[in-house]
Specification:
By secondary structure, the protein is mainly alpha-helical. 57% of the residues lie in helices and 5% in strands. It has 23 helices and 7 strands. The strands form 2 sheets. A 4-stranded mixed beta sheet has the order 4-5-7-6, covered by helices on one side. The longest helix has 27 residues. It is globular, with a radius of gyration of 26 Å.
Length: 529
């Protein structure tokens, strides 16, 4: 790896081209080289990585992220009514409350996919986004290691960490932009030149797409600050930036920070990630994706095993750690262990380092390649994926296993004449499918936490206080209808519902609608609790 020192000028260093060395060097640079590589074994390995994303996509429960529904509703308002959502439009508990939609830009692709292909379009997005992410990560790993087989292996391993965020989730756009950022910075670190001008617009798009831009900004400053120190400390080394590089990075950093404020919500959108970290305590402590890694489950075992293996390989091969890489790894590891949703961050930061440590993997030998066999394998693999891709009926059936699809028609023909207490995970689904019904709560936790609604909902579900707290909360919000899972459900997405059990055995309530997923109940006497 070419490293700039204080005596190296940028004119002495040529930017590295991934096609000019390593396994792809046999095919030449540019798109012509990529075309020549298309029937090679390297293409088979790439399809194998795509197949891993395919398998993980099929393995995930369909639409198990409840946010996608209100994301699409927001995009619908934007594209059809030509204004952003700036206050709550969907609930009766916080109606009109000011709200910052920090993901407004990344909601649009999901809405358009649904408009074109319906539920199949959403399902396709759950495959397309992880695939784009892993192909970009493969490029980054190869850029670092110049060993394609090691890079594919590292990305396959990363996929099993990143699966925690697979699904129709806006955060995937943030992670894709994160890899693009690291590709640019890696070129700048190793080649001396890179299109840094892309980074400020990238952060502008990122800030309007997802709050994960704050993680990218931290990585940017870790890389920038690490280059201010030069030297070697045991197994840790760092090369100092040249004065010209420092000026370029400083200008890029300042321009990127300024670009964050180019958004329709101003400083409030920029402040949102910090508001989540410091003010939304109940959100962070009670929502599943914010919990810490459990080392007793499979995912925790993978994390522990990968880190131990990485350290052992580094020690046995007597490798030096780059200071910036080490600091990014420590930051990603701490963040991922604290909150499971950031395992994707760990996968992204870890993969290039792992690919570089695994450069002992056998290189690609073009003289031993068999293009015709490779093409047959790839066509067969694509045919298998197309054959097993779920049809629209299967997608609809899977949706009906976790969401109250049946009661939506009932609510449209029998509009509720009062307030509805709904199950938390179904709020967004009702927002999208029955927009005339105002919900009690949905998964926009922030706005409901501010108003105290989320706390009341958690109190309602607390098994030790359910009997004592149920009637006061129903009375506080003047609840006439309750839409919850059946009390005996075993569906892990739905959970057991003591609320349903109590109300079914209360003479003041009657069942209006029931199926295997949900129960809709109405209070018989609207004046009595």
């Amino acid at each position: 790896m070419t490293v700039l020192t204080s005596t190296t000028t940028e004119a002495d260093v040529q930017p590295l081209n991934p096609a000019s060395s390593g396994d792809f060097g046999h095919f030449g640079p540019g798109w012509r080289g990529s075309l020549r590589a298309s029937p090679s074994f390297l293409a088979v390995l790439t399809l194998g990585l795509i197949a891993v994303q395919y398998a993980l996509t099929l393995r995930r429960a369909d639409f198990d992220d409840p946010d996608v529904w209100w994301h699409m509703r927001n995009a619908q308002v934007l594209l059809e009514q030509h204004h952003l959502v700036r206050q709550d439009l969907y609930s009766f508990t916080v109606a009109g409350h000011p709200w910052v939609n920090s993901e407004w830009l990344s909601e649009i692709p999901f809405y358009l996919a649904y408009r074109v292909l319906g539920l199949s379009g959403l399902k396709a997005m759950t495959f397309v986004l992880p695939t784009i992410l892993m192909l970009l990560l493969l490029y980054l790993c190869y850029q670092e290691s110049r060993n394609f087989k090691a890079s594919v292996f590292a990305c396959c391993l990363a996929s099993f960490l990143a699966i925690v965020s697979y699904g129709p989730r806006t955060i995937m756009f943030g992670y894709i932009l994160m890899v693009v950022l690291l590709i640019i910075l890696q070129r700048f670190r190793t080649g001396g030149r890179a299109p840094l001008w892309i980074i400020p617009p990238l952060f502008c798009v990122w800030a309007n797409s997802h709050g994960s831009w704050s993680l990218g900004m931290i990585l940017f400053f870790i890389i920038g600050i690490s280059g201010l120190f030069g030297g070697r400390w045991g197994h840790i080394e760092s090369s100092r930036w040249t004065p010209s590089q420092i000026r370029k990075l400083a200008f890029t950093g300042a321009a990127s920070v300024a670009a964050l404020f180019l958004n329709p919500y101003g400083w409030r959108l920029v402040n949102y990630p910090f508001d989540v970290a410091f003010n939304q305590k109940m959100n962070v402590s009670h929502v599943a994706e914010w919990v810490s890694v459990n080392f007793q489950d499979a995912r925790g075992t993978i994390v522990f095993g990968v880190i131990i293996a990485l350290l052992l390989i580094a020690l046995l091969r007597d490798r030096q750690w780059n200071l910036a890489d080490l600091l990014m790894l420590l930051f990603a590891l701490h963040t991922a262990l604290a909150h499971i949703r950031f395992l994707v961050l760990l996968a992204i930061v870890l993969s290039p380092m792992l690919a570089k440590l695994l450069d002992f993997f056998p290189r690609y030998y073009p003289e031993k390649d068999t293009p015709r066999v490779n093409m047959a394998v790839m066509f067969a693999g694509i045919a298998v994926m197309l054959f097993f891709w779920p049809r629209p009926q299967a997608v609809q059936k899977a949706l009906a296993n976790g969401y109250p699809t049946g009661v939506v028609s009932y609510l449209k023909t029998n509009p509720p004449q009062g307030n509805v207490l709904n199950f938390y995970l179904w709020g967004g689904f009702i927002d999208w499918n029955a927009p005339d019904v105002k919900v009690f709560i949905d998964s926009r936790v922030d706005i409901f936490e501010y108003a105290g609604v989320f706390k009341d909902y958690l109190d309602l579900l607390g098994s030790d206080s359910l009997v004592r707290r149920l009637d006061p909360i129903l009375q506080k919000y003047n609840i006439r209808y309750v839409l919850f899972p059946p009390g005996d459900t075993k569906n892990s997405l739905l959970g057991d519902s003591g609320v349903t059990y109590l109300l079914e055995h209360d003479s003041r309530w009657k069942v209006l609608y029931r199926d295997k997923v949900c129960v809709l109940m109405e209070r018989v006497d609207s004046k009595s609790f």
